[in-house]
Design a protein that fits this description.
heterodimer; A: mainly beta; Jelly Rolls; 5-stranded antiparallel β-sheet; B: 3 helices
Chain lengths: 303, 175
């Protein structure tokens, strides 16, 4: 939960509490446009009240609660501390747009938060994972709610493959593909395949169809160190096997969007076995008929 | 402008934070030989920035000696192969969990090995992707290239490159 300013909608009581370790102290809290000019305002023991006319609305008051002992330690505070009462605050404060200033120390800088989010019981959070565009501000660090804050249009990308895969001799077989954006990526492709025939798995940012001739494709591959770093030789000599294959590389892409292909080719020009069944065939009735899955996962590690 | 938390600030629009993870990637392009029951280091990387790092190793490996033998692999930071340093490795919870044994059924097999862990460092530290075996024989266990009839592979080899590469990388995941 973190540290919260709470407002009881029925009693207009204002309170603070701490259920986390987001900040360590509170010295004062100011709620802007908290009430009408003639509202009744009462402070709880240990707190004093200062009011001023709101700069944008002369009929409203900004209300500041100051801890009169100078510094309220909140590290271990689990219970609600009532700091006062502001008549009509629940009618005047819009939870979606409430503006709050607070100080950690009497002489400290003012910290501002706005657009604080509320919970169903009207706890106005001001130092919380979900406040202020998903960033936690603490006394010595800040933490980003990565999923909600960062624009990651291209990360991560996962493609699952459940179609039957068949060897095609020396031809390049594409197992699956995904589209990624610019930046540096860690790409891993994983699945279980029959590896009786020796094969070479790799990841490429070009398909054979992108070139006029196979020679051009080969020339592109053999001169590209990033692509070559993904190359792996796979072979399991026992018959009828299904062994895990992982193909991976660290890949840097300058383009806004680029298709990445997980491919293989065989040592034998006549290899033509099915190496990956789309559906599981098993004596276990639970898994029998389930989709067999391989995956291609791309995670951006740098923009 | 650096964000100082003691400053007053106000976010009027969604904050965009672009993360640039530091990473070190060592690609292995040369054959590697086992040294019997001694340690062979396939790859080493030195991480210089304090913080949490994910270490990852991928590759395809053989056993050079005979069927039914084990290849043992792990990530360590020991400079030497001695009982004392081995015991130090076993006392490192982040690294000892990387230890794995792979049994080879056929000399022709190329088996995929994936190894990873997360470590926290406070200063520059070198990590090794290490191997040993239960057989006192040397031989190639990481075979980067062999005779091939496949036109793509022969093309790669004609450029002086190899078709079986491994990589050992560290990706910084937090400060």
């Amino acid at each position: 939960m973190g540290n919260v300013l709470g407002i009881n909608i029925s009693s207009d009581t204002v309170y603070v509490r701490n259920k986390g370790t987001i900040i360590d102290t509170i010295s004062s809290v100011t709620i802007y446009s908290a009430c009408n000019e003639d509202a009744i305002i009462q402070n709880s023991t240990g707190w004093t009240i200062n009011t001023s006319v709101n700069s944008q609305n002369a009929s409203k008051l900004d209300v500041t609660f100051v801890y009169d002992a100078g510094l309220l330690l909140v590290n271990d505070l689990q219970n609600i501390i009532t700091i006062g009462l502001v008549e009509g605050i629940s009618l005047n404060v819009d939870p979606a747009n409430v503006l709050i200033h607070w100080k950690r120390t009497p002489t400290g800088n003012i910290n501002i938060c706005s657009n604080v989010e509320t919970t169903v019981n009207l706890l106005y959070t001001f130092s919380n994972l979900i406040f202020n565009n998903n960033v936690i501000f603490t006394s010595n660090n800040y933490v980003v709610n990565f999923d909600k804050t960062c624009l990651q249009d291209y990360s991560p990308f996962i493609t699952t493959i459940s179609s039957t895969i068949t060897e095609q001799g020396h031809d390049i077989v594409c197992i699956g593909s995904t589209t990624i954006g610019s930046g540096t990526w860690h790409i891993t492709a994983e699945g279980g395949f029959n590896l009786k025939n020796k094969k070479y798995f790799f990841i490429s940012d070009k398909a054979v169809s992108d070139f006029s001739t196979l020679t051009e494709y080969y020339d592109y591959i053999k001169s590209n160190d990033m692509i070559l770093s993904s190359f792996g030789t796979h072979q399991i000599a026992s018959t009828g096997n299904a062994y895990p294959v992982t193909t991976s590389m660290v890949y840097t892409n300058a383009l806004e969007a680029n298709v990445i292909y997980w491919c293989f080719t065989c040592e034998s020009s006549t290899a033509n076995n099915i190496i990956f069944e789309g559906d599981v065939i098993s004596s276990n009735e639970y898994v029998d008929g389930a989709s067999n899955t391989a995956s291609l996962l791309a995670i951006r590690i740098s923009f | 402008m650096p964000l100082r938390l003691e400053d007053t600030f106000y976010l009027e629009a969604p904050l965009k934070v672009y993360v640039r993870h530091k990473y070190i990637n060592n690609v292995v392009k040369t054959d590697a030989n086992l040294a019997g029951t001694n340690r062979t280091i396939l790859s080493s990387i030195t991480l210089t920035e304090p913080g949490d790092w994910k270490l990852v190793g991928y590759g395809r490996f053989k056993h050079p000696v005979s069927n039914g033998k084990y290849l043992y692999t792990w990530i360590d930071k020991q400079a030497n192969w001695s009982i004392t340093e081995w015991n130090a490795f076993l006392g490192d919870n982040d690294l000892k969990q990387t230890f794995q044994g792979i049994k080879f059924e056929n000399i022709e097999d190329y088996v995929a090995i994936h190894i990873n862990t997360v470590v926290t460092i406070s200063d520059a530290t070198t990590f090794n992707w290490s191997f040993t075996t239960d057989d006192n024989t040397a031989g190639i266990f990481f075979d980067t290239s062999s005779n091939s009839n496949n036109p793509l592979i022969t093309s790669i080899q004609s450029q002086g490159n190899v078709e079986n590469q491994a990589h050992f990388c560290g990706i910084k995941i937090s400060s």
